[in-house]
């Protein structure tokens, strides 16, 4: 089940990236190959987009091969041909990848270096939970680590106080507001004179306030959303199995002692 969940998140990301890459490559050739963009895009059974019908257009000018600018035009033509050949090869590479059930169900992390870690963070459609998965490179068959982290409810005190809850839309709104103010501050910086000390101090104060807001937002996301699950983002420690066994034994002692004291208090009350 864990592997299926992690694989599904990988597949959704891979399909989206592949389609966006193929579409962006097609736009790189739009100046050379115009197509009818009013037609609905078509795809094959394996998800590969079909090319749209080309629109014939007359040449805008004729090149005089006997002019003095032959060398410059030839150089520009060769450069354009090389660029087009490069993107054509990239397009064919992506088109040749068949997105069938067998290929999508096979993990590719085994081909990555062993010190690489792949983290996927996805949010559900209703924006109520995060799916966080972790895969290690270089290890075939290694089971991924997957967490379903609800964005609400883990720290509720039962008082139904919605104001203290950090929602997804609230976090995105705050982030966009910080970026907007940062952009405005960057644009106004050109109007500040070098000898206007007060204006420079105020500008840096606003930048510092934005840094503080961004830090507080990230801290709230780390505490309210991830909590202890943020350890999935940390590198593996050099802890040995013996150390883990010792730690487990210490926890067991604490639990046993706590349960033993609780049983004693219950008997005394009786």
TrEMBL record:
InterPro entries per UniProt: Peptidase_C50
Gene Ontology terms describing biological process: meiotic chromosome separation; proteolysis
Alphabetical list of PANTHER family matching this protein: EXTRA SPINDLE POLES 1-RELATED, SEPARIN
Entry protein name: Predicted protein
Biased amino acid composition, Acidic residues: 65-74
Region described as Disordered: spans on this chain: 44-74
A GO CC term assigned to this protein in UniProt: cytoplasm
An MF annotation (GO) of this entry: cysteine-type endopeptidase activity
Species this protein is from: Laccaria bicolor (strain S238N-H82 / ATCC MYA-4686) (Bicoloured deceiver)
């Amino acid at each position: 089940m864990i592997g299926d969940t992690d694989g599904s998140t990988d597949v959704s990301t891979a399909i989206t990236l592949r389609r966006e890459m193929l579409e962006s490559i097609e736009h790189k050739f739009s100046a050379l190959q115009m197509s009818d963009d009013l037609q609905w895009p078509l795809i094959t059974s394996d998800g590969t987009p079909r090319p749209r019908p080309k629109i014939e257009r007359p040449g805008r000018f004729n090149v005089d091969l006997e002019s003095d600018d032959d060398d410059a035009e030839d150089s520009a033509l060769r450069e354009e041909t090389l660029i087009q050949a490069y993107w054509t090869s990239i397009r064919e590479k992506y088109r040749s990848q068949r997105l069938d059930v067998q290929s999508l169900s096979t993990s590719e992390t085994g081909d990555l270096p062993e010190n690489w870690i792949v983290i996927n963070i996805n949010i559900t459609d209703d924006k109520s939970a995060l799916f966080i998965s972790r895969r290690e490179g270089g290890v075939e068959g290694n089971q991924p680590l997957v967490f379903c982290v609800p964005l609400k409810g883990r720290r509720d005190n039962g008082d139904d106080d919605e104001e203290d809850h950090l929602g997804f839309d609230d976090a995105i709104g705050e982030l966009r507001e910080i970026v907007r103010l940062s952009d405005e501050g960057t644009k106004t910086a050109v109007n500040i004179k070098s000898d206007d000390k007060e204006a420079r101090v105020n500008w840096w104060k606003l930048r510092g306030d934005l840094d503080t807001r961004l830090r507080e937002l990230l801290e709230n996301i780390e505490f309210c959303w991830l909590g202890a699950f943020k350890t999935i983002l940390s590198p593996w420690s050099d802890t040995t199995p013996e150390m883990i066994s010792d730690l487990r034994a210490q926890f067991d002692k604490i639990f046993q002692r706590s349960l033993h004291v609780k049983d004693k208090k219950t008997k005394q009350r009786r």
